[in-house]
Structure formats: structure tokens, C-alpha cells
Amino acid sequence: MFAEGWKEELPESHRIALDIAYSDFIDAYFHISPTDSGKIEHIADWLPKKHADRYTSLFCHRFIICMTSVAERLAQPERIAPLPRCTAEAFALHVIIQHATIILKDVQRIDADFYKFEILAFRDNEFIQLYKAAPDVRGEDLDKRIALPNNLEFNDWFNPFNRDEPVNPFVYEDWETQQAGINFYR
Hints:
Layout: H1 12-30, H2 38-44, H3 57-74, H4 87-108, H5 115-121, H6 175-180
């Protein structure tokens, strides 16, 4: 059973819905042609609109890997908390939960309650504020703008929160690897 380690916080219907939500999202992503721009819109619809113009094909590939990483941790027999190891993974888990909520409502006629799970699964919920953030002002002097904390800046979404809990190396290369030029194809 998917999310077995979370059975105290999530009833079976919610665990099944999370599994289906993840599978549906991945299936939809991979059934679209790599050259189809619809792939980007499909993912961008679930993310903060503030950065919609920055959701490129490479971003989408990395985001899907984050979603798969979160699902892999969620599928472990024992609880791993917090589940997300970077902001992009937090968004990925949030997307899975939102999709599972829709599935439960539309298919099972159940009002989803992921509150206990979310409290334990997420490190914090500051990333949710980005859904309400105003778009960047064109011509704004970025040197005078106050940087967002906790990897909330778009360029930091794939950076791990903690060096001891790395993210998939495809989405984030540590500084030493970048400088050594070992992974020079990315």
C-alpha cells in the first residue's frame, strides 16, 4: 500500500488517492510528445503563476524528477519526514495532495483531510505564499530587492534545504561537482 508509513495520519482512501494522483500526473506528463508545448502548461497550471514564464522544458523535467523523488520517499514502509528536501519537492508534494483532494471529491465523494499529514510531511508551508505573490515588476532593480528566505527564490527551488539530505543529482549539482566540471553536459 502506498504511504503505509503514514497510515496513522491518512485513511486508506487518502493513501490510495495520493498514489493515483501521482500516477495520473506522471502518466499525463509522459504521454505528451517531448516537443508539445502543452507539457509545460500542464505542469505550470499547478504552480505559482508568478513564474509562469520561467517554466521551461528543462524545469519541467527537473520538477517531474522532484515529484518522483517525493513519491519514492512516500512509498517507503516507514515514515520519512519531512518528505520534501527542496522547495520544488515541496511544490511537487503539494500538487500531489491537491490532485488527490480532487480525486477523492470527484470519485469517492469524500472531503479530503490531509491536515495531520501535511503538518508532519512538510518542513514548513512558506512556499504556499508564492501562489499569491505578485509578478515581478519589469525594470525593477534586483540589487535593491529583498531576497526571499528558505529557498523561495525561483533560482533556489532545487537547492537542498539540508546538505545532509541531498536531492536527486539531476535537479541539483553541488558546488564542488559544478566547479570540477565533472557533469559538463548539463
